[in-house]
Amino acid sequence: MSVVLPGNHVPAQHVNLKLGPGLQQLTTAGPSRIDSTVIATRAGELRHSTNRSKWWIESNSRRYVPAPQEAVIGVVTQRIGEGYRVDIGSAHPASLDGLAFEGATKRNKPNLKVGCVVYARVSLAHKDMEPELECFDAQTRKGEGFGELKGGFIVRCGLKMCRDLLDPNHYLLPLLGGRFPHESAVGLNGRVWVSAKEIKETIAMVRCIEAADPDGGGLDAQGVKSFLETLDV
Question: Which residues does the UniProt record annotate as the domain K Homology (predicted)?
Answer without folding.
Answer: 152-198
